[in-house]
Structure formats: C-alpha cells, structure tokens
Amino acid sequence: TAIIDNAKCFQWVRELRWPDGVHCPHCSSDMIVKNGRDKTQSERQQYYCKKCSRYFDDLTGTIFEGHHQPLQIWILCLYFMGLNLSNQQIAQELDVHVDDVHRMARQFRDGVITLKPEVGLKGNVECDEVYVVAGHKGHPDAVKKKGRKGRRNRLKGARGRGTLSKEKPPIFGMIQRGGEVVIQMLENVKQQTIFPLIQTTISPGTMVYTDEYDIYNRLQEWGYEHKTVCHSKGEYARDEDGDGFHEVHVNTMEGFWSLLRSWLRPHRGISQEALPAYL
Question: How many alpha carbons lie under 13 Å from residue 4 in its C-beta half-sphere?
C-alpha cells in the first residue's frame, strides 16, 4: 500500500536518496534548510543550500524530475516492471497512455544501463549463444529501408543460425559458475565479433566451456583454457577426471537462456532497437 500513497512515495525517495540526511545535489553540502513545499504537490519538500545558495527539492537531479506524471505513477510503473508486465499491461493497470509507459520504462532501463558496473568473469566460465526473433516493431522507417510492407502476423525468423539482418539477432552469453552473467546482442556470431567481448570480460587463463561451434576454436590462442561438449553427437555433459562429476558442459548458460525466453515472452515481440536495453 505504500507505493499507492504519494506522500509515502516521496518519503521512500528521500530515505533511499539521503539515508544519512539531506545533501545538496549541486555541491554535496549538508548545510540544508527546508524551504516549504511544492505548490502543486504538497508532499514534495523544497530545500535551500546555505553553502551554494541554490534551491532544490526531493526530485531534483533524479529520473523523476520534470515530468507531468505524479511520482506514484512512476513508482508503480517501476513496481510493475519488477513483476515483468508488458508496457501495454502496465498502461492498463495505471490507466495512462501506453506511450507514457514506453517513455518511463525506457528511462528506467537506460538508467540501469548507465549505472551498471563492469563485470569480470574468472574461474569456470561457460559461453553460448541463443537467437531471438526481433524485427523493427514500432519503427516503420526501418521497415521501409528493408523494402517491404509491415507484417500483419507475428514475425517468424529464418531457420538456422540468425543474424541482425535476418531479424533473428544472436545473443551472446558468458556466465561464471556460481557468479555473474554477461549477455549482449550481436550483429552476427563470428570470431571477430565475439573476441572483443571475451577479451574485455573474461580474465586470461580462465577455463572456458563451450559447445563444438567453430567460433570458439581460437580460445586457446586467445589465452584461455578450453573444453567442449559435442551436442551434435548427443553429448551434453562429460566427466573427464573420473570423480563422478560431469564438469564439462554449458548447462548453466543454457538454463539461463530458458529463463530469458520466459522473461521475454510477456512482451510479445521486442524490436531490435529496444532489445539491448531489455537484455
């Protein structure tokens, strides 16, 4: 119930933003005095900084600043995104226009990407790729460039390994067993495409597990230990040292792909332009 009360939403923002007391967003000073309330939103506290002589309020410098939607709409949008509702479903729940939800959700995702720390993988790492059907939903100009009319039915990707131009972009994944995962949409899956990602993400000397796809043939040349399983021969896990534990596999990454597919399903098709932010 706290997120449907505008006053509690502002209190939540204050507690999250200034856990040790209010600080000026311009100079970081704690020499702050309250300066009344906003005329249109009485729950919105205003402040004055004695050090830099500037005014600010609860939302100054945040993603919520300068928008016509009330704060509780933004917080509810974020809450529903956490439940993995589609933008259309969120618009219905909040009784707002779907374009407003598109803008809010895009700003949330862009903010997450901006603040996301760099990830380094080491130890035992699995690499694999998956293909997601993604056209140019909501981007008519891109469809015109491809020289065809917009589709009336669901987009169906070409068979086999996909590329961005075939509207079946590959998603390349790297996961540390017991650790973090890194996924990124690529134009295609070639050695020259995956090498920069592997080099910047996986520590040299790491044991990397993959399937038999030949794009991984140069991993040892690139400075990594490398073991493969051969899916085409029906092999999905192998015990090489006889300890009864089948350590050679990419099942962790493949399990992640099943979660990703389930997570993408409610959104009923995401454009190539928006897919990286969703990932």
Answer: 4
The residue behind tokens 């506290």 is: 45
Q: pLDDT, tens digit, for every residue of 244-255?
A: 899 999 999 999
Residue 267: pLDDT band (50, 70, 90) is: confident
Alpha-carbon torsion 191, 192, 194, 199, what sign? positive
CA–CA dist 124, 205 (Å, integer)? 10
Tokens of 100: 């407003």
The pTM for the full model equals 0.79
Could you tell me the CA-to-CA distances from 22 to 15, 35, 41 in Å, in that order? 9, 13, 19
Q: What is the pLDDT of residues 117-154, one digit of tens each?
A: 899 999 999 999 999 887 766 555 555 555 555 555 55
- Contact status, residue 49 vs residue 24, Cβ threshold 8 Å: yes
d(CA 245, CA 147): 53
Q: Residue 149's Cα: distance from chain center in Å?
A: 30
Q: d(Cα 233, Cα 240) in Å, to the nearest integer?
A: 17
Average pLDDT over residues 72-82: 93
In degrees and rounded to multiples of 5, residue 213 shows phi and psi of: -55, 135
